[in-house]
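Researcher: Here's the sequence for the chain we discussed earlier.
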Amino acid sequence: MTGLKERLQGDLTAAMKGRDELRAATLRMVLTAVRTEEVSGKAVRELDDAEVVTVLTREAKKRREAADAFDSGGRPDRAERERAEGEVIAGYLPAQLGDDELRDLVAAAIAEIGASGPAAMGQVMKVVTPRTAGRADGGRVAAEVRRQLAG
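Model: Thanks. This is the structure I predict for it:
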């Protein structure tokens, strides 16, 4: 088992012993998503830490989107639960990039490939996305790329 997956499993055990229902349910859900990812495809494989972070990022995004949907649907109780689950997941993700760090990464990528104008957005995103993986939401990265290419 990879280090992050072991940590998730150990924390699940601790949450169950401590009767922390929210944490236990969230970790079960995340570990299920990890196992599902491991058995998808042609052959069963063990995910490395980077792949587990990708799964965690995807699960955190699902929680944010679900919370927004519950808010707009008039279910603040369910929205709060989704946000709480998102906070549990966020504890396992790498620290998010600050606005300054993101701006610098995007500027460096633009300079690296010599991009100019909105038409180069795809090229810049291709360079920036791996550098920000798990550390910044894709929408936030795209907005910063768009802003810098437009200005």
